[in-house]
Write a structure and sequence with these properties.
Elements: H1 2-21, E1 28-32, H2 40-47, H3 56-64, E2 70-78, E3 88-98, H4 109-115, E4 119-125, E5 136-138, H5 144-161, E6 170-177, H6 178-181, E7 193-204, H7 212-218, H8 221-236, E8 239-243, H9 251-262, H10 276-284, E9 288-295, E10 298-308, E11 311-319, H11 326-343, E12 348-352, H12 356-360, E13 365-375, H13 381-389
Parallel strand pairs: 4-6, 11-12
Antiparallel strand pairs: 1-2, 2-3, 3-4, 3-5, 6-13, 7-12, 7-13, 8-9, 9-10, 10-11
């Protein structure tokens, strides 16, 4: 009887979800293919307090230098009874993806079976060039359940509008931290499913840490010696580090080094294009820093750091993995990013989702991240889940590198 009751409840709920998916929220939408077609003052009513990756200037720079397989789409959502201030803003990217964007953990039968049909146009709420929930932001007064229902509706509208140029196979909302996952639960009513991805490695600093020297002081003595040893070894080998005042003249070299790292990445949803780093630097001003490592005057490695509210994001890096000193150089790049984030007044530092052990050794703790995904054909969701299993998902090691318990991880 319990099994029969459970089955009946499932069928009733399935019917309810079908009705919900086909019932409008009543919200009012403005959709645009170019950010300049959106009312800037209305967009910035929300964006000014949100991620830098939703700022008007950044989106304009991204639009001018997009990845070759990505197009941006925008929406402003209004409550029908309050048209003078937005309920939410949305930035989506229409991305053309295939298995060439993924390096399977264990190539074989799964990958071969999927290759035959996966050449997808996917609508991504978020930014394939950044890690974080950078595709949607709400008014502080917004009802989040209504807001996320409206986001699901606007994604549906966008996806249907794009059908004129070809089928859009699925929709993805990236990246939701574990702390915010419950607030997005209503998306399951629209047949979205959560998929856990690699964690973001985040350092949360104490109030006493405002410089890199303060950070070093907070480390356990054994860890501090190892960190200092990295810089000393490179210096003794003839390497120097500095910040670039002007990226433009050096961008060809930076892109060359970036491509060397990109070639070994497990996931490459999109690649930055020529002019993107310079445009981003110009758009963000003092919220963007690029540090480089040189040998005999030539740039051999670089790291970019972005200030996103109180958080510093270790953004793109570049170096030659084949260099004999590549391991030490990479660890030094992480240190430079921490130093740059502290110089910009950041209280948290996101080091990203790769090389988890090296980042844990610097005090970073894992913050679980998820994406919500939905395929246009319900029965294909099974295969979509198999596709995402091809994306490596690693477990971050736990390290105690700070004195006592001065630093605690906090999810954003």
């Amino acid at each position: 009887m319990r099994s029969l009751t459970s089955s009946l409840d499932y069928l009733v709920d399935t019917h309810r979800r079908h009705i919900e998916r086909h019932t409008v929220t009543g919200c009012v939408f403005v959709l645009a293919d170019r950010v300049r077609l959106i009312n800037r003052s209305q967009w910035e009513l929300i964006a000014q307090h949100q991620s830098v990756f939703l700022s008007w200037d950044y989106l304009h720079a991204l639009e001018a230098h997009p990845p070759e397989n990505v197009e941006s789409r925008y929406a402003v959502i209004y409550h029908p009874e309050q048209l003078d201030a937005p309920l939410a803003i949305v930035h989506c990217q229409l991305a053309t993806l295939s298995l060439t964007n993924f390096q399977a953990r264990s190539p074989g039968e799964d990958q071969e079976a999927l290759t035959s049909w996966i050449s997808s146009r996917v609508l991504i709420c978020g930014n394939v060039l950044s890690s974080g929930l950078h595709g949607v932001a709400f008014s502080p007064e917004a009802d989040l359940e209504l807001g996320w229902r409206a986001v699901a509706e606007v994604i549906y509208k966008m996806r249907r509008a794009e059908q004129l140029q070809g089928v859009v196979d699925g929709a993805v909302i990236k990246d939701v931290s574990s702390d915010h996952l419950s607030g997005t639960a209503v998306l399951s009513r629209y047949s979205y499913r959560t998929i856990k991805t690699d964690p973001d490695m985040v350092i949360t600093l104490t109030d006493a840490m405002s410089t890199f020297e303060d950070y070093l002081t907070g480390l356990r003595s054994k860890v501090r010696r190892k960190v200092k040893k990295v810089a000393r070894e490179l210096e003794q080998s003839g390497y120097t580090s500095s910040r670039l005042d002007d990226i433009g003249p050096h961008e060809p070299r930076l892109l060359e080094l970036y491509r060397l790292v990109e070639a070994g990445s497990d996931v490459r949803l999109a690649s930055i294009s020529k002019g993107y780093l310079t445009a981003m630097s110009d758009a963000l001003g003092d919220r963007f820093v690029c540090s480089v490592i040189r040998r005999e005057g030539e740039i051999v490695a670089f790291v970019t750091t972005v200030k996103d509210r109180e958080r510093g994001l270790s953004y793109y890096v570049g170096f030659d993995r084949e260099m004999s000193d590549s391991g030490v150089i990479y660890r030094r790049l992480l240190q430079l990013s921490i130093e740059d984030a502290l110089a910009m007044g950041c209280k948290k530092i996101s080091l990203g989702r790769t090389a988890l052990e090296a980042k844990a050794n610097l005090g970073a703790k894992p913050v679980p991240l998820y994406v919500w995904a939905r395929h246009r054909v319900p029965t294909v969701n099974f295969f979509a889940r198999k596709l995402f299993r091809l994306v490596p998902s690693s477990v971050a090691p736990e390290r105690t590198v700070f004195k006592q318990t001065e630093v605690k991880v906090q999810a954003c």
